[in-house]
Design goal:
two-stranded antiparallel ribbon; 17 helices; 71% helix; mainly alpha
């Protein structure tokens, strides 16, 4: 992980140097158009004040601040008059507004992470460096004018900026977790059509609106994104409640003594890591996590409990019976039908299973076998490899081995040496 820490440190250092350079250049040359700078700085600060805590799948916890920063980076005119703030001042205003807005969050101990701030500085700096020199030199207006071609150029530039942010996000996640870069980048790219597209669209419209109508356009175009942010926050709250409800249902098997303590959570965390290794999307990872949490809930319907809750040691017909009972229980809870399908099919032959069911079956078997097989995790992996002819998909088993070799992804699961 020393290489990962070095990568994170390098990204943070680059962002810090860019921010300090922007602030120093602005102080040296003076603040151009102070009213415009103050308006955008206030907008960015407001966006940071309205931020929410970043959770799974939430790429941008402060969308209004991000949109305001990008709009200032792409601002060429204000009510028909050319602006001359340049790339360094863009960074200075974006950093100053962000710092002003996060002070209350830091005081409550809920400030943004350094990775989020570094990504913001570098992506805004990228957009400003690509746009401001070209506009100030007159190249853009001379070649594109002020019509549709100019708006299309802004959209293409924001697309490149979004790609830059996705690359940085995946790189930092890779450095901190050791997960493969490819699946992480695909997950970031799949998330772009969500709040990322709203941020880019709003940033473009703000820049174009201020160019025509002046600073009065800022509040007009900020309101829709604020309303979108409120909707996202409510959705995130509902999703959090659902996750907590499912986790509570999963613990029912432990409270009843059907499974060992922590078994469901270990299987869920490790399944999610294996799913990310195999390139599952964010929505698929959520279904996988929920199904892994509830994979043993069918044991509550048994008259005689399974010894140690180890369903992987049972005959195949008994495993399928418990899986079907579990699927029936899950369907009664109101959880998404996709989760019930994974629970029902976790005991089928792997050639007939969807990938999510293959993962749950393999990871559950690993956790069961690691507690009962001589050699612990290594012995369990060997037994899984011996079962790849029918029970466990070879790709899933090898992905599990790679995750474990990197240190695992669960509480209480020891790393397994490679090979």
């Amino acid at each position: 992980m020393s290489a990962g820490r070095a990568t994170v440190g390098a990204v943070h250092a680059l962002a810090l140097l860019a921010a300090l350079a922007g602030i120093a250049a602005t102080l040296w040359h003076g603040l151009a158009e102070p009213g415009t700078a103050l308006a955008f700085g206030a907008l960015i600060a407001l966006g940071e004040l309205a931020r929410w805590g970043a959770g799974p799948g939430e790429r941008e916890p402060a969308p209004l601040a991000a949109a305001g920063s990008l709009a200032y980076a792409l601002l060429g005119e204000n009510a028909g008059h050319s602006s001359a703030h340049g790339a360094p001042q863009t960074l200075a205003v974006a950093v100053a507004g962000a710092l002003a807005g996060i002070v209350p969050h830091v005081a409550r101990g809920h400030g943004p992470g350094a990775d989020q701030l570094a990504r913001r500085v570098l992506t805004v700096g990228f957009a400003a460096l690509c746009f401001q020199p070209l506009f100030n030199a007159g190249t853009l207006t001379a070649r594109l004018g002020h019509g549709p071609s100019y708006a299309l150029f802004l959209l293409l530039l924001l697309l490149l900026t979004a790609l830059c942010d996705a690359v940085l996000a995946a790189l930092l996640h890779r450095a901190r977790t050791g997960h493969p870069y490819g699946p992480l980048l695909r997950e970031q790219l799949r998330a772009l059509p969500g709040i990322g597209s709203a941020v880019c669209a709003t940033g473009t419209v703000m820049a174009l609106g201020v160019a025509v109508a002046g600073l009065w356009a800022l509040p007009v175009f900020a309101v829709p994104l604020l309303l979108t942010q409120v909707s996202y926050r409510r959705y995130a709250a509902v999703r959090t409640v659902n996750r907590q409800t499912i986790a509570s249902l999963a613990r029912a098997t432990e409270i009843a003594g059907c499974t060992p303590p922590g078994h469901a959570r270990r299987v869920a965390d490790l399944s999610r890591a294996v799913g990310r290794e195999l390139g599952l999307s964010g929505a698929e990872l959520t279904v996988l996590e929920y199904a892994a949490l509830m994979h043993d809930i069918g044991q509550l319907s048994l008259v005689d409990p399974v010894e140690c809750g180890a369903t992987a040691l049972l005959p195949a017909p008994e495993q399928r019976r418990i899986a079907l009972l579990g699927g029936a229980v899950v369907r009664q809870t109101g959880v998404a039908a996709a989760v019930a399908v994974v629970v029902e099919r976790q005991a089928d032959p792997y050639r007939d299973q969807p990938l999510t069911a293959r993962i749950v079956r393999t990871v559950n078997a690993y956790d069961d076998l690691a507690a009962t097989t001589p050699g612990g995790g290594l012995g369990a992996l060997e037994r899984l490899r011996l079962g790849t002819a029918r029970d466990y998909h070879p790709d899933v088993v090898e992905s599990l081995a790679r995750v474990l070799a990197r240190g695992g992804a669960t509480r209480g699961v020891a790393p397994v040496p490679p090979g």
